[in-house]
């Protein structure tokens, strides 16, 4: 016989785990984000040093120049633990699927003006390689950074960028075919317009400081690329030329950037607020890499913007500077 | 003219290829060896990363959709279980000690697996293995978190789990699973894949994960059972990855075979030693047993593993020779382990107890060659002593094996009356081992294993007392100080189950549901 236990009213001995209680200041009910994040990474009494990097512990805060008294100061404003993350992305992919269906079923790809389709394919398809590079860089930050509060969002980001590379691939296949993808890769490898960006991405692969890599990839490069390509060129410029179906196909990227930049900003803000030293390091990274990224993106932007390139790029950089100033780092 | 109509549809395999491999390129602005610096030093030769067969083809959109569906179901079961005081439905409060063992010993390893696969995924130059590893990395953080979430409600009502992260990094026996994963993640990326991807996920998973899940199912623990079943389809992917890794490495170059064979030997033994904890869980800690450790070993390793190694014979891989040793230990392993934990119950984060008469009979029937002869008399003696108020707690610290870090409790293969000791002199120090296999592992990489953080040594060196402790003061109680360092509360988290707060509370709370009081 099943006894009805719901009627039993018992007083719990405690409301959460001790490590969580210590961090939230009291023994009170904690969220799934908190219980699934705080102190998840081991911190003490490691048995062996990595044979691949014996100068460091398995997890080692000294891998980065950024210094934090407590690495769990970093909190994800989206409160993403795995379950919350997957639920959010599943919803977005449903929208993306509906958008792809809509464009496909109504043959909207065929209604695109030739010039818009050409521009989209030239501009967008090589960007699948940039997203693939970001997949690798975010895996790197996840693997080598310290504290789950900071490392965790990077594995989600890594998988997101793989997803984005795959959505771009689908756009390429929908508006073109397999040869379109090959042509995009050829341009990525050979065309002058792409070499600055490819060099930027390959240079980021050898960065050793995980926090710097976060800044370079997720704050700077994406911070310029997404507003430029998705928010301005596709949603704005091409849409006004009859390219609205393309904006539907890249809605995932637009929404994704709006969401993830809140986390990137919060992360920069927390690190900068920690100390003047952190702020100075962040200022230097942001400035140096912003200038390199803006220069690398210029010939790419020209594919779609022609004469207006410098003007638009200038605006995007201005916006980026304002964003960073709001996060506490004036550049 | 509509170009769309003429377009050729891609097959599944081609489509997956453009979604993954097609994204990769050969860099020219930075050197490959600077981008992938850890890929050569283990001596594994890979000539063609494109020969990698994708073990499963899952694009991210499908992954999110499928996983979100599983998460929705899992958390709705957990919520209902919590709201309905489901914890009072477990067979008996002794069962909760299995949950404690799992949360402090196993869940933190899921987290290390998450970071380890992120590392391996980052370091492999082939896009196929990278995608598969990163997908496993994100799955593993899922496992770590769903386990913490599933156990969260137990922690509210029962002792021993309240500071499990802290415990994992410190408590003496938890250095066994911790050092196992530390060993794997500090190895090179190929060895990591063989240790965790193949040996752990493929060869040993049915002996580790499955007993906990079926133990939960048998004992009314809906929470653990649900996350266990929910993780199963992830595990299926991980197993195919583990097998593909092995085949891929072996097919790439004949020089890889002896290296892989050594890793398989090492990690089968390392993994088996960690399974000591599972063996005693199965034979002693589950109020309602699923099967004995010995049966489990025979089915999942001797039969299934035997078939696997037959299959790998075409690559020149043979059954690790430690299998013979393990076969000799299978009548003894769980009993020797439980006796040890019974001894050291004062310093542990879960309770132990002596089996009752029925349980002894069950053990005798499952272990006809060993139980009545070697272990029953010992238990009956301890039980008598406990009845007289002399419950035995061993306060002398044991010698540990330098490699597996288990106390030197195991007997000579073939002679259950004699403790097995091995030792090695290295750079002026003496190192001790539980077996030839642990000794051999040390001898191959002494510089690695001399680093081991051995809990007993650390206690004797004074490194396991709270900050500011003065061990020279009169009446200093080392055990009390160590418990403080562990964040364990004496009398609540430790000692015998008989008389514990868990026992008392569970009885009282269940009584409220079944009686009119
Ligand atoms: Fe797992
Ligand atoms: Fe050992």
Automatic annotation (TrEMBL), chain A:
<dbReference type="InterPro" id="IPR009078">
    <property type="entry name" value="Ferritin-like_SF"/>
</dbReference>
<keyword id="KW-0560">Oxidoreductase</keyword>
<dbReference type="InterPro" id="IPR012348">
    <property type="entry name" value="RNR-like"/>
</dbReference>
<dbReference type="Pfam" id="PF02332">
    <property type="entry name" value="Phenol_Hydrox"/>
</dbReference>
<protein>
    <submittedName>
        <fullName>Phenol hydroxylase</fullName>
    </submittedName>
</protein>
<keyword id="KW-0503">Monooxygenase</keyword>
<dbReference type="GO" id="GO:0016709">
    <property type="term" value="F:oxidoreductase activity, acting on paired donors, with incorporation or reduction of molecular oxygen, NAD(P)H as one donor, and incorporation of one atom of oxygen"/>
</dbReference>
<dbReference type="InterPro" id="IPR003430">
    <property type="entry name" value="Phenol_Hydrox"/>
</dbReference>
<dbReference type="InterPro" id="IPR012078">
    <property type="entry name" value="MP_mOase_hydro"/>
</dbReference>
